[in-house]
UniProtKB/TrEMBL annotation:
One Pfam family it belongs to: PadR
Protein name: DNA-binding PadR family transcriptional regulator
Domain Transcription regulator PadR N-terminal, residue spans: 15-89
Keywords of the record: DNA-binding
Keyword DNA-binding attributed: yes
Region (Disordered): 188-209
Molecular functions per Gene Ontology: DNA binding
InterPro entries in UniProt: Metal_resp_DNA-bind_regulator (IPR052509), Tscrpt_reg_PadR_N (IPR005149), WH-like_DNA-bd_sf (IPR036388), WH_DNA-bd_sf (IPR036390)
Biased composition (Basic and acidic residues): 200-209
UniProt organism field: Paenarthrobacter histidinolovorans
Length: 209
């Protein structure tokens, strides 16, 4: 049986869906996309089928039957098992309690940004602000949509979390841009690339003509 720590993000998402009700993988995929959970978990139909298959191998889900609609391939419906509930609960508890360094790309890029000219960095950060604001607008509209449907807030608190993280990053970048623009943050221009160096490999010292 799989340990809860071995559950992938897609495995967690799959178990969480099946904890709501039995369904087949394609239905699970459609629901994930309808809820825009692809913003949180990388998901494609093929990977989802594979994830459900692994969960079945470990006894965390089980097939309840198959159905066929017209000429479409048979679809197997799955439900979560007691072991699946236990694994899901354990994994969620660990994920909520223990911070994990997930090695995000942006902090790494910021740490090495001094290798680029200030004007280049400024332009790229302004582009990033446009994208971040678009993401924030999307999440604001998503919150309005679920609120209008009367969906309990506990089902979409991740939306407010993502909004808070975006607003924080947007504010931080705007502050950095202001520092760069006013010169409050000095920025040495990168040294020019060395020229005139031969790209030919050096001959071995032991080689005779």
């Amino acid at each position: 049986m799989a340990k809860s720590a071995e559950l992938t993000p897609l495995g967690v998402a799959s178990l969480a869906l099946l904890a709501e009700q039995p369904m087949h993988p394609y239905e699970m995929y459609q629901l994930l996309m309808a809820r825009h959970e692809d913003r949180l978990v990388k998901v494609r139909p093929g990977t989802l089928y594979h994830a459900v298959g692994r969960l079945e191998e470990h006894g965390l889900v089980e097939a309840t039957g198959t159905e066929r609609e017209g000429n479409r391939p048979e679809r197997t419906t799955y439900r979560i098992t007691e072991a699946g509930h236990a694994a899901l609960d354990a994994r969620l508890q660990a994920m909520l309690a223990a911070p994990v360094n997930e090695y995000p790309v942006f902090p790494h890029a910021i740490a090495e940004a001094h290798h680029l000219p200030a004007k280049v960095v400024t332009g790229l950060l302004e582009d990033r602000l446009v994208a971040l604001n678009a993401d924030l607008d999307f999440l604001i509209h998503a919150q309005e949509a679920v609120t209008a449907k009367g969906l309990d807030r506990k089902y979409w608190i991740d939306i407010t979390y993502q909004q808070a993280m975006l607003r924080t990053e947007i504010a931080w970048i705007r502050g950095l841009l202001e520092e760069l623009g006013t010169g409050q943050l000095p920025w040495d221009e990168p040294r020019p690339a060395l020229t005139g160096l031969s790209n030919k490999p050096k001959e071995s010292l032991g080689k005779h003509s």
